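Recall that a protein's primary structure is simply its ordered list of amino acids. Everything else, from secondary elements to tertiary packing, is in principle encoded there. The following example makes that idea concrete.
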Amino acid sequence: MATNTPWLPSCLRAVSERYGPLPLAIPLSSKRTFYMNMNNYRNQHYRSLSKAKRDFCAHCDGLWPSGISIPPLRYPLIFFYELYLRPNYRHDLSNVGSVLDKFFADYLVDTAVLEDDDTSHVNGVIYHYGGDDPSPHGFLTLCRYKS
């Protein structure tokens, strides 16, 4: 079990390590890239979205050494995303974070870490701006309220 980190709100208790870095841009081909934001998500063809999600899941599988898996979590969670975005731009965190959350929540369901990503298993999502970075990425900490 992870210990609380200073950037985590005091009402939450971390139940996992910080997962990441999670990509905010996924190459679809040598010429096309899927940028994680709601505008791209809405406008992409369903086959491009499917490929982006498969490639994102493959990236997430590579975050852990082989043979290591996340144990199933059977209690309500709060997802705490820390986003690092390109400098010199104005960003809407929900535009970026909502697509990242959709992809990662589906990944956790596909790998049987979560039974489902409905409100009985995921009670909330928090997006936190971590700062500027020339290569945009995000981190996730799974949390639950102190009991």
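Residues 12-63+75-145 form a domain with the 60s Ribosomal Protein L30; Chain: A; fold (CATH 3.30.1330). The two ends are 15 Å apart (CA to CA).
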